[in-house]
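tool_call predict_complex ligand=nicotinamide-adenine-dinucleotide
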Amino acid sequence: MSSFNPQTVAVPAGHFIGGRLVAGPPALQVRRPSDGQVHADLPLADATLVDEAVQNAWQAWRNTDWARRAPRERARVLRRWADLIEQSVATLAPLESVCSTRPWRDATAWDVPFTAEGLRFFAEYADKLGGEVAATQHDHLGMVVAEPYGVVGAITPWNFPLVMMSWKVGAALAAGNAVVLKPSELTPYSAVRLAELAVQAGVPPGLFNVVQGDGRTTGEALTRHPRIAKMTFTGSTRTGAAIMASCALNGPKPVTLELGGKSPQLVFDDAPGIDRLAGVIAGAITGNAGQVCVAGSRLIVQRRLAEPLVERIAQRFAALRPGATWDPEATLPPIISAPQAARIVDIIERARAAGAQLRCGGGLFDGGPGGAYCQPTLLEGVDDSNPAVQEEIFGPVLTVQTFDDEEEGLALAAHPHYGLAAGVHTADIGRALRAMRALSAGTVWINRYGRSSDFVIPTGGYHQSGIGKDLGRQAVEANLRFKSVLIDLAATH
Ligand code: NAD
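tool_result ok
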């Protein structure tokens, strides 16, 4: 299978405002995680430029008919956009892969098509959430009318750049809003291409603007802007809390927060198909090198099954081959940056100092093309207070804890702060559903792990893993506000 040559990938290194690429002086260097090389520079939007982008979006929202046109026409434009994205896979996939951890093969087969299909899903909701008629007293008619907010601010992370953007922007546009997006400064380029294609598909220029920059300057200016009527964010819990505080202090506005996790995989000893199961559990912590919010990072397994399962997982770990995102033979992508790789190693070392025993892995691969590649790591003998059990690592590191009975297993699965997702593996449907009820998590997968293309199932966390949902009907509703109308039918009689 052929791939791409990173040296020849030209990137749109600018902002996208008012329907055109806006250059600026280089301010940030964007590196390729695969080989550590600087690929291109990036301008940084200061508060003035963020203001320009937001005002532009506001004017586009007010002066074009996007919010007022027939919803099915909005849907048609979004579907056309999805088609253009799919047709652009040959250019979009390298753009997505070159500075991210997304292997070109996966970007081609999954990220780009999944982005397009997500937009189609949101398009289908454009004419389905108009509000409701209220059960008022008989001589009145009460209505709850759904309306867009105006300009939605969106901030996204680096781990699945296209997909994360499409969830934010698709839901907001389908509901009739304008959007100003700040992608991660580590993976900024596919956002601009996405916005160019939106204009090509018929989204009015200015309705979807992209500002480039870091969190402290560009991100904060966006969250503080008084014209931003709603914020939607995906990223770490720490940043989510800062964004919520900033919104609260600068003119309160609703926030959707999709944050970090430390998700358990609860395996009972009757779980079906040990080989398949080992594949599911290994895949859930090594996919994207563990840099997945819902990574299944804590294996909690009933004692009888522990050794044979862990042995099979270790074998799967050993079979992975690290390599650049453009290497079609590689099965383990790089860690996003050198500081993040150092952080993973530090947590492993602290975990070992606190009593964890290393079954395999434990550090970075030697040599290689220059990026940082983390060995898939299994840590046994950990208790609840171990740093590897407590902290989101965002790398291919799996802790193993064993239990004897259901109550003990459920107690281990609980986390003091996070509640993003959980997996339950058992052949006993009663036990699976008891566990589902007991687990305090926004998503519970039973006898599988990970999202599917069933976009109708929302995603989002409990506790410090977030507020609100991406995907599903709920994501579109979160981009609508509701006006109450009460009509006195008797008054004109
Ligand atoms: P991050 O919080 O460091 O950054 C996310 C985004 O926020 C970036 O665009 C960044 O520039 C911006 N930002 C940083 N500080 C800011 C500030 N003060 N004000 C405004 N914006 C600011 O997260 P990351 O390292 O890019 O992504 C990894 C994290 O994202 C992990 O914790 C992961 O679990 C989480 N995540 C969650 C989901 C989910 O659906 N729950 C999905 C993907 C990633």
